[in-house]
Amino acid sequence: MTASILRSALRRSGSSATASSYFASRGFASAPSHERKVAVLGAAGGIGQPLSLLMKLNPLVSRLALYDIAGTPGVAADVSHINTRSEVKGYAGDDQLGEALEGSDVVIIPAGVPRKPGMTRDDLFKINAGIVKSLCEAIAKYCPNALVNMISNPVNSTVPIAAEVFKSHGVYDPRRLFGVTTLDVVRAKTFYAGKAKVNVADVNVPVIGGHAGITILPLFSQATPKANLSDEEILALTKRTQDGGTEVVEAKAGKGSATLSMAYAGAIFADACLKGLNGVPDVVECTFVQSTVTELPFFASKVRLGKNGVEEVLGLGPLTHFEKQGLEALKPELKSSIEKGIAFVHGN
Length: 348
Ligand SMILES: NC(=O)c1ccc[n+]([C@@H]2O[C@H](COP(=O)([O-])OP(=O)(O)OC[C@H]3O[C@@H](n4cnc5c(N)ncnc54)[C@H](O)[C@@H]3O)[C@@H](O)[C@H]2O)c1
Ligand SMILES: O=C(O)C[C@H](O)C(=O)O
Known about the structure:
Binding site for substrate: 115, 121, 153, 187
Catalytic activity: (S)-malate + NAD(+) = oxaloacetate + NADH + H(+)
Largest sheet: 6 strands, parallel
Strand content: 15-25%
Bound molecules: nicotinamide-adenine-dinucleotide, (2S)-2-hydroxybutanedioic acid
Domain Lactate/malate dehydrogenase N-terminal: 37-179
Structural class: alpha/beta
Protein name: Malate dehydrogenase
InterPro entries: L-lactate/malate_DH (IPR001557), Lactate/malate_DH_C (IPR022383), Lactate/malate_DH_N (IPR001236), Lactate_DH/Glyco_Ohase_4_C (IPR015955), Malate_DH_AS (IPR001252), Malate_DH_type1 (IPR010097), NAD(P)-bd_dom_sf (IPR036291)
């Protein structure tokens, strides 16, 4: 987001004020009150940089720690000149990870390699599983009470990896671990609004399951505002949402995967976590968490966020025959991705 886009957005919003009030006026954040530290791990990357920018614009953040293996001094110096609330510090390399994490309320993890055309998210497991494991070991040591927002793929496996690492350190609290599936919701909303010809700002669509291919299950039967879409249109919207990541990977033709839309989605989800921590009532987002909603140990569904993270994992609501079929079809793949993550931590 360039300064001019932000300025014109501010003009459109009728505001003469700052970026902070721009986001606040859109419900992006509630008024600043508490001191909150947010750490971004992988902050110099394609997602990390715009996400760091968006977190710098969030008035709920008082301290922003930007960590990567390299490149963070520059990103932090750049972002730190923005005249918003948070104090920004950059940290580079293993020996600065502890300091970056200490005192964090929310840790966002977009560290790891992205897909190239022809790859599945699971193809990233070999590299990203190890990265996520070592970062979570540091979280267990330096900020075991933080809410962890896992963006690194494959989310269906990296979240179980994080859970096992935290368990092995005796600090696992299922209320504090989240797979970020907000981009699936963002896409479902955008695609639905286009097809249903309704104002995108009014649209809500729950997306359940996981975050890869058919494990992404948008529930368009519960979308609001209601629209009379045909079965073919629902099928096409479902497929487009499931393939949204691949659509971007192919368009970028070897230069990575979604970064800007993901930064937006990551900022929305982190903001929801901060609002929950700050006691704002009725904060509900879809996210991949430990769950008993199905027989699978982790599952994405609507979750109410509160002062301790997950306050309530909400049920799926009524599903159509098509959605029930989608739910049954996704279970074997999601189950095996979860098991793969768990096995990785135990050396199997
Ligand atoms: N959950 C989602 O919806 C979603 C959406 C888009 C991308 N992703 C995933 O996010 C990840 C990052 O994507 P990207 O496009 O930003 O990739 P990128 O390669 O541009 O950036 C990744 C960053 O991680 C850093 N990194 C690597 N190892 C690290 C470590 N041990 N500690 C800290 N930082 C480390 C790299 O130095 C790099 O700066 C990928 O795994 C991608 O698949 C998830
Ligand atoms: O598709 C990818 O590999 C990145 C991400 O998971 C996405 O949904 O955009």
